[in-house]
Amino acid sequence: MLEGAFGLKIIGAMMSGYARFKPQRFMRDWRIISRSGLEDFYLLQMFAGASAMIDFAGTRLSVSRGDVYLFDFGRVFSSNYSAGSTYSLLLQRDRVEKAMNGRKLHGTLLKAGLPQTQLLADVITGIANLTPVTTDTNTLDVEEAVISLLALALHYSALKEDDPSLVPVLRMRVLDFIDKNLAEPCLDIQMLLSRFKVSRAHLYRMFETEGGIMRVIREKRLHAAYQQLLRNPATPLPHLVEHWGFAGSDQFQRSFRHYFDMTPNEVRHERTKLIVEDGRVRDIQSYLAGFTTVQ
Question: Ranges for the HTH araC/xylS-type domain (predicted)?
Answer without folding.
Answer: 172-270
